[in-house]
């Protein structure tokens, strides 16, 4: 008998403590979502690294393609007016 | 893509790495970069997983409960590190099952050191102290390697491994300060693990095939011989401190170099073990293949159950 | 009183010790890397519990013996674990079935032990209960997966449950130390856990499409130190270092 289907890959996101966002920690294999959560707990939080875990099957993530990075991200580079340093203030105004 | 376009891309790629930019999985990369990384990273992962066996061998026989939990936690970490590394390698488009297949058929290598037997409890000390010590020297520079997933996995690995070497050295200290019998046990383990540990840092620079390319891609920051020297220089005083003798009559401090001179390594033995004829090669593979095959019906069942559950959920929704 | 408490502690601790040892055997040999890590976590939880109990037992005994002496230097007739936990890792179905059949008991037991008049025991129970709640969740999930997975896994799990069933009744037997500790308000009256135990176990077996064994014949003896033949080999490994190199520090 050969294994017909391998356990799919899941991405693991962990909140280290309340107040922080969930951060991508890594991935693992599991047959279903429950197992993925349990495995994530044992693999990625065994040193007390987390208070909350998200798992999502890797195939459900849509990622941008680096080949399109030009049109995706470069147009944002020269929009300096979105940043406070673009605006001139008299020296007398210390905090704004 | 024309050859010239590819050359152009390659040039840009090398420049990015030279600027210390990280390469991420979906970025364009030369095929050789992908293959080299798959090879090195999966080999690294295999080493972690096969490395569980010689130490796992002593879990049920650890001499105290304190030692038992420390050893269990350490071997468990190795499983975790294997897992991080397999996951990082998977981002390059190879599955874990394919990597296992390569391991099980002997196509992929793993660190030869794990083909030596752990015959006494002191071997747990020697492995932690020497083998993990050598591994750390190899691994720390990889935290800033060019491939993002590998670098991130290594940061986690290095952070977690910091207790492993201490765990081993503490075992050795206890033995070295113990009864005569314990001290002999410690010395015997050092005698058996010293040379394989030196070999673990790889063939000499003259014999090493991949070094130059690996340096450029930051898979390596120092040559094998430099790493070996670093390992010897840091380990000899640790042996002195606990009254154990490094089993090398040619070992002596070289004032001029500020380093230890050391004796000839038996490279015939090294290549023999690499080629599969070490004392435990067959045993180790039998254990890994056995676990994988015995687990097949379990993995199949879990998938079948997951599918049934998903189907039921769908029906309920309708 | 002191003697009874000591014996009582051993009864509790030995279960976790022997089961932890069994789970430790699997480290590096599980069906997947993830499962391996999970089983090792459980083993580590159990050994952590063991140390709390034996350290307390060493204090009660007050004869200079350490936790390790108590854990590793008794004779086979002096181990008081139930027969269930010493059964071997025949296959992954056995391993999970053994765990599950013990976890359900263990959780019920600790829930009561938390109310013990003995503050140390109550504190240990409070800490352990969270670990064991997870163990039960983990093993129950695997009972469901294997019971309601493939035909092969179903058959293997059913075989494991059928074989191990005979060791479940002993969980609810009382020893003399048990009785004494119950009357002091320190120990748990295990006879009262039986109904809830089988209810929980049966529910999960049914959810897992497994049949509940009908056998009325049960084995006992572990609590009195009369074990199955498996224990000798397990102890041989557990005690090897302490026996071969007596009176040394590690």
Automatic annotation (TrEMBL), chain A:
<dbReference type="InterPro" id="IPR009359">
    <property type="entry name" value="PaaB"/>
</dbReference>
<dbReference type="GO" id="GO:0097266">
    <property type="term" value="F:phenylacetyl-CoA 1,2-epoxidase activity"/>
</dbReference>
<dbReference type="InterPro" id="IPR038693">
    <property type="entry name" value="PaaB_sf"/>
</dbReference>
<dbReference type="Pfam" id="PF06243">
    <property type="entry name" value="PaaB"/>
</dbReference>
<keyword id="KW-0560">Oxidoreductase</keyword>
<protein>
    <submittedName>
        <fullName>1,2-phenylacetyl-CoA epoxidase subunit B</fullName>
        <ecNumber>1.14.13.149</ecNumber>
    </submittedName>
</protein>
TrEMBL record, chain B:
<dbReference type="Pfam" id="PF05138">
    <property type="entry name" value="PaaA_PaaC"/>
</dbReference>
<dbReference type="InterPro" id="IPR012347">
    <property type="entry name" value="Ferritin-like"/>
</dbReference>
<protein>
    <submittedName>
        <fullName>1,2-phenylacetyl-CoA epoxidase subunit A</fullName>
        <ecNumber>1.14.13.149</ecNumber>
    </submittedName>
</protein>
<dbReference type="GO" id="GO:0097266">
    <property type="term" value="F:phenylacetyl-CoA 1,2-epoxidase activity"/>
</dbReference>
<dbReference type="InterPro" id="IPR052703">
    <property type="entry name" value="Aromatic_CoA_ox/epox"/>
</dbReference>
<dbReference type="InterPro" id="IPR011881">
    <property type="entry name" value="PaaA"/>
</dbReference>
<dbReference type="InterPro" id="IPR009078">
    <property type="entry name" value="Ferritin-like_SF"/>
</dbReference>
<dbReference type="InterPro" id="IPR007814">
    <property type="entry name" value="PaaA_PaaC"/>
</dbReference>
<keyword id="KW-0560">Oxidoreductase</keyword>
Automatic annotation (TrEMBL), chain C:
<dbReference type="InterPro" id="IPR011882">
    <property type="entry name" value="PaaC"/>
</dbReference>
<dbReference type="InterPro" id="IPR052703">
    <property type="entry name" value="Aromatic_CoA_ox/epox"/>
</dbReference>
<dbReference type="Pfam" id="PF05138">
    <property type="entry name" value="PaaA_PaaC"/>
</dbReference>
<dbReference type="InterPro" id="IPR007814">
    <property type="entry name" value="PaaA_PaaC"/>
</dbReference>
<dbReference type="InterPro" id="IPR012347">
    <property type="entry name" value="Ferritin-like"/>
</dbReference>
<dbReference type="InterPro" id="IPR009078">
    <property type="entry name" value="Ferritin-like_SF"/>
</dbReference>
<protein>
    <submittedName>
        <fullName>Phenylacetate-CoA oxygenase subunit PaaC</fullName>
    </submittedName>
</protein>
């Amino acid at each position: 008998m050969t294994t017909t289907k391998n356990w799919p890959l899941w991405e693991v996101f962990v909140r280290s403590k309340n107040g922080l966002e969930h951060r991508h920690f890594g991935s693992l294999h599991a047959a279903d979502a429950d197992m993925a959560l349990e495995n994530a707990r044992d693999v990625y939080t065994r040193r007390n690294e987390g208070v909350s875990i998200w798992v999502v099957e890797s195939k459900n993530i849509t990622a941008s393609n680096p080949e399109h990075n030009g049109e995706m991200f470069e147009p944002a580079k020269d929009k300096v007016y979105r940043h406070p340093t673009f605006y001139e203030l008299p020296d007398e105004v210390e905090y704004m | 893509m024309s050859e010239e376009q590819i050359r152009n891309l390659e040039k840009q790629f090398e420049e990015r790495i030279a600027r210390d930019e990280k390469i991420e999985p979906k970025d364009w990369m030369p095929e050789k970069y992908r293959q080299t990384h798959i090879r090195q990273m999966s080999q690294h992962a295999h080493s972690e997983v096969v490395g569980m066996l010689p130490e796992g061998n002593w879990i049920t026989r650890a001499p105290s409960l304190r030692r038992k939990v420390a050893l269990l936690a350490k071997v468990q970490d190795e499983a975790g590190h294997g897992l991080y590394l397999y996951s990082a390698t998977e981002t390059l488009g190879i599955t874990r099952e394919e990597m296992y297949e390569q391991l099980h058929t002997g196509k992929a290598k793993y660190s030869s050191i794990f083909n030596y037997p752990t015959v006494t409890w002191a071997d747990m000390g020697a492995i932690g102290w020497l083998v993990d010590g050598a591994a750390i020297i190899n691994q720390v520079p990889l935290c800033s390697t060019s491939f993002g997933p590998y670098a991130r996995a290594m940061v986690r690995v290095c952070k977690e491994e910091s207790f492993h070497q201490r765990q081993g050295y503490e075992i050795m200290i206890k033995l070295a300060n113990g009864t005569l019998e314990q001290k002999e046990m410690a010395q015997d383990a050092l005698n058996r693990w010293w040379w394989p540990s030196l070999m673990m840092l790889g063939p000499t620079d003259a014999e090493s095939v991949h070094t130059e390319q690996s340096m450029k891609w930051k898979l390596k920051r120092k040559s094998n011989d430099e790493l070996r020297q670093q390992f010897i220089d840091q380990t000899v005083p640790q042996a002195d401190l606990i009254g154990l003798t490094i089993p090398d009559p040619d070992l002596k401090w070289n004032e001029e170099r500020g380093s230890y001179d050391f004796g000839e390594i038996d490279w015939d033995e090294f290549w023999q073990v690499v080629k599969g004829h070490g004392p435990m090669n067959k045993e180790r593979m039998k254990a890994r293949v056995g676990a994988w095959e015995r687990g097949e019906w379990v993995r199949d069942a879990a998938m079948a159950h997951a599918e049934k559950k998903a189907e039921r959920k769908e029906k309920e929704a309708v | 009183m002191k003697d009874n408490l000591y014996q009582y502690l051993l009864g509790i601790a030995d279960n976790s010790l022997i089961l932890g040892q069994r789970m430790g055997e699997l480290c590096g040999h599980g069906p997947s890397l993830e499962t391996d890590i999970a089983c090792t976590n459980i083993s580590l939880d159990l050994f952590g519990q063991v140390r709390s109990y034996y350290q307390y037992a060493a204090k009660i005994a007050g004869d200079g013996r350490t936790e390790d002496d108590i854990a590793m230097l008794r004779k086979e007739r002096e181990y008081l674990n139930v027969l269930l936990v010493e059964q071997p890792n025949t296959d992954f179905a056995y391993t999970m079935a053994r765990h599950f059949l013990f976890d359900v008991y263990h959780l019920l037991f600790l829930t009561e032990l938390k109310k013990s008049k003995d503050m140390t025991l109550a504190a240990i129970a409070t800490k352990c209960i969270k670990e064991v709640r997870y163990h039960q969740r983990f093993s129950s999930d695997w009972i469901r997966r294997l019971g309601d997975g493939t035909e092969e896994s179903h058959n293997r799990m059913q075989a494991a449950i059928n074989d191990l069933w005979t060791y479940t009744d002993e969980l609810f037997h009382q020893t003399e130390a048990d009785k004494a500790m119950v009357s002091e308000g320190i120990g748990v009256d295990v006879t009262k856990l039986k109904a809830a135990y089988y209810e929980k176990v049966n529910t999960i077996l049914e959810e897992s499409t497994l049949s509940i064994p009908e056998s009325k014949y049960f084995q006992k003896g572990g609590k009195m130190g009369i074990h199955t033949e498996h224990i000798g080999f397990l102890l041989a490994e557990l005690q090897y270092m302490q026996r071969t190199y007596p009176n040394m520090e590690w």
